[in-house]
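Technical annex B. To support the medicinal chemistry partners, we prepared a structural model of the target in complex with zinc ion, based solely on the information shown next.
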Amino acid sequence: MSTLADLKPTKRQRVIDLVSDAGFDVSDWGNYKRGPKWAAANPKYCYNWAFESDEQVLLSLWHAHMTEAGGQIEHTFNIREFSLDCKRKGLGTLGKRAYDMDLVLQRALHKQLPMRVMICEGDIRDDDDDQADASRVKFRLLDAEPWHIQHYDKLTGACHLVRGAAPSPYVDQFSLPTTQPANKIQITTSVRERKAEVREKALRKAQGKCQYCDKPGFTTHKGQIYLETHHVIPLSEDGPDHEHNVVALCADDHRRAHHGAEREAMQKQLLALLADLYKSPSAT
Ligand SMILES: [Zn+2]
Ligand SMILES: [Zn+2]
């Protein structure tokens, strides 16, 4: 695991190259009056602090502003407040860049977009000195790890970013800690393997709603949405451990699917639902 010190950039790298490395289309950078040769210096892009596509966002952050706590690398800031402060001081250009970054954060949160980070090292402008020069980046690198928004206050703009992929918003009965009964009885059963990846895909497909009654799952104390994953053709009957055979149900409907009087009709309905969800586009 890398520490904050490991992430300190030591190479001069161009913004355009890192934006491209992150997977963004940079072809429009070349549409610049000085010609495509100057694409890297296109002011429409090269000074931006945040980039955005339909699939992801990329932020430029100072290494010096990152912190490390309990092995976790974080960045706490309020770019909206900074933007307003710049405007008050007549620093319109900086204010606009900060404002745009805040909008990118809001959209990243709203659309649940994955986040990449360009880590910057250099001379950071002293915000308390109104005559100070603009910040100057000396070195930068593209962090290989994704980041995610742990907290964003829509009202104030206060933001807390954490290095690493976002934890799943969903959980099922297998991801909760198991509680041991007080009087333990030894039970030997053959537990068939359920792949975490399959359950995760099924939960994401359901998007937090029971696929039988459409009711949203409840929210756990950790803020995740709880639904139970259910193999429509049971593993014991050689049903495949594949998302094409797994639905997410509310706890009530899961019990019903196993023990209810209507369990056979329910199974037919769920199989039809899965067939419809995963039908190949060419079949339509
Ligand atoms: Zn239900
Ligand atoms: Zn089940």
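Notes passed to the chemistry partners:
The helical segments are 15-21, 79-88, 92-111, 196-206, 251-259, 263-277.
The chain has a mean pLDDT of 91.
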